[in-house]
Amino acid sequence: MAIFQHIIRAMETLDVRPGQFSVLTVIGANPGLKQIAISEALDIRRANLVGMINGLERRGWIERRAVRGDRRAQGLYLTPRGRATLSRLRSMAARHERTATRLLTAAEKRQLLRLLARVHDATA
Amino acid sequence: MAIFQHIIRAMETLDVRPGQFSVLTVIGANPGLKQIAISEALDIRRANLVGMINGLERRGWIERRAVRGDRRAQGLYLTPRGRATLSRLRSMAARHERTATRLLTAAEKRQLLRLLARVHDATA
DNA sequence: TATTGTTATACTCTATAACTATA
DNA sequence: TATAGTTATAGAGTATAACAATA
């Protein structure tokens, strides 16, 4: 929770919220994705995604384009400005990960991830 | 996050939310506490605490009593039913902690807590 | 008939301002 | 003048239902 608060506070300087970061990340890795696919991937109701997408589009970070073969859907793409913003956000995330693990050795970091993965397996 | 979801889902069977659990825990450990103290301890606005306290009182889990020496404040106490509920919630939390760590040895559990404490120190 | 995006709406959580009764 | 509790209110985040256009 402390890490989360830390990262969220940093991203607030770009006026970006965690959900927006995750949407930008998914679109960046999967250009042309339909809203329904993002909705399923991130477990966000498609009704709630509409406003988020509108906000990201209004800020010039993403755009909706027609999808060939299905006139109901629209593909989502990052704009050049969107790519620049995502790049800055990734740098922030990386910097905060370095901060969070600065008291750990490389071996301890690996060990931490290994133990957390087992906890996750146990609760999944 | 997986652990949190896990515990929250279990506590929903008693219709208890994470915030309510934390308030019951703090009152249980500090009988007679004033709302302002809980507000500061749990970082909950005193305005938002009012409704939570009302809800817990309505369900017969806590009660407000006069504080000698300060007629503005009211001390909060668990009722017998509140103590019983808190006890059940603690059992749930303990059971889920056992589930979460069931793939770890005792030494690995200690190591995990040690590493997480360092990450927390680094971000605090 | 089913799916995609959308609107409308409701409920919870969280945040601020302002009031009251005391101190 | 400050503090404890309260009320009112507004903003996020998240949930469901229903609609139009299209499949």
What does this structure look like?
Two copies of one chain form a homodimer. Chain A is mainly alpha-helical and 124 residues long. Chain A has one domain (2-123): Arc Repressor Mutant, subunit A. Helices cover 66% and strands 10% of the residues of chain A. Chain A has a three-stranded antiparallel β-sheet. The longest helix of chain A has 21 residues, at 80-100. The relative contact order of chain A is 0.14. The mean pLDDT of chain A is 96. The A-B interface holds A 2-3, 6, 96, 99-104, 108, 111-112, 115-116, 118-124 and B 2-3, 6, 96, 99-104, 108, 111-112, 115-116, 118-124. Chain B binds a DNA duplex (23 and 23 nucleotides) through helix 3 and helix 4.
How does the SSE layout of this entry go?
The structure is a homodimer of 124-residue chains.
Chain A: H1 2-11, H2 18-29, E1 33-34, H3 35-42, H4 46-58, E2 62-66, E3 74-78, H5 80-100, H6 106-123
Antiparallel strand pairs in A: 1-3, 2-3
Helix pairs in contact in A: 1-5, 2-5
Chain B binds a DNA duplex (23 and 23 nucleotides) through helix 3 and helix 4.
